[in-house]
Amino acid sequence: MRVIRMFAALITALALVGGCGSRGVVSSTPRSPADPKEQLLAGIKALNSATFRIAGSSTLNSVSSTSEGVADPGRRAMRLTQSASAAAGKATKTDVVVLGTDVYLRFDVPALPGVPSGRWAHIDGRRLTSFRAVGVGGPDDLSGKLALVSALTSIERTGPDELRGTVDLSTGGSVLPEVAGALGDGLKNAQWQARFGPQGRLTWVSVTVPASGGIPAITTDTTYSGFGEPVVVDRPSAGDIVEAPENVYKLLGQ
After folding, report:
1. Within-domain flag for 50
2. Does a structural domain hold residue 29?
3. Cα 198 to chain center, whole Å?
4. Gene3D superfamilies annotated for this entry (predicted)?
């Protein structure tokens, strides 16, 4: 179970780094900036300018992970569900709801320590060192992809709407210490690819951490779609919420 939880934490980090406003859709098709880094930054900002849907997947040996959710940048709101399972039948499931700096976190299997099974832990996001610990980039960058720009070590264009390069995932607390220690130097030379839609938005990111520390290479694919479509992000029912105990903040790397 510990391996599955570490894998799930890593996939969360890759999905975030491998890569706010009204619900309107940009009406014109912008030209790709001449500079690849400018195109990446513009694509991320365009992604964060309207509602969107997110879906991700990854596999490591017998452990697979999927994620799905919706975001409403205008409300600084996001809902994300991540599941990881192994061939032996063991699994984890995590649900996250973000409303501004209020975070609601639920681990169905296993439950969060100190939180009754099936309940949501309310977390004060202002106490977190990084929202990445709960699977989002933060209320002002729900996609989490701005971290990709700051951690780039190389970038090149492979087509009018495609970029690739390398990124140092060991910087800026992108990955929790337990996971970072297991992966070693592989985090420092992760490869990424990105594609953009006709309106310049980032629509797909793939991040690969090369084999390191006895762990095989891991690739995570994340897609974004449904731009400007109505989404629902509700606060959990009051009767299902408990205040997160201090040990939960420690678990999240406060």
Report:
1. yes
2. no
3. 23
4. 2.50.20.20
CA distance 108 to 91: 10
CA nearest to 207, candidates 184, 183, 189 = 189
The least confident of 48-62, 76-90, 168-182, 193-207 is 168-182
What is the rounded average pLDDT of the residues 104-112? Answer: 79
pLDDT, average across residues 106-117: 79
Q: Which of 132, 165, 142, 130 is nearest to 40 (CA)?
A: 165
Predicted local distance difference test score (pLDDT) of residue 144: 76
Question: pLDDT tens digits for 176-231?
Answer: 455 555 566 777 888 999 999 988 999 999 988 888 777 788 888 999 999 999 99
Residue-number span of the structural domain to which 61 is assigned: 2-24+34-251
In-domain check, residue 120: yes
Q: How many domains does the chain have?
A: 1
Under 8 Å between Cβ of 128 and 20: no
CATH code of 129's domain: 2.50.20.20
67-93: average pLDDT: 86
Distance CA 195, CA 222 (A): 11
pLDDT at residue 72 in the model: 95
pTM: 0.81
